[in-house]
Amino acid sequence: MKIIVKDDTFELGKAAGRAAAQMISQVIEKKGYANIILATGTSQFETLNQLTKEEIDWSKVIMFHLDEYIGLPASSPASFRRYLKERFIQKVGPLRGIHLINGEEDPVKECSRLGEIIKKNPVDLALVGIGENGHLGFNDPPADFDTEEAFIVVELEEKCRKQQCDEGWFKVINDVPHQAITMSIKQIVKSGQILCSVPDSRKAEAIKDCFENQVSNLFPASILQTHRDCICFLDKSSSALLRNNILRV
Question: Which CATH number fits domain 2-235: 3.40.50.1360, 1.10.10.10, 3.40.50.620, 3.40.50.2300?
Answer without folding.
Answer: 3.40.50.1360
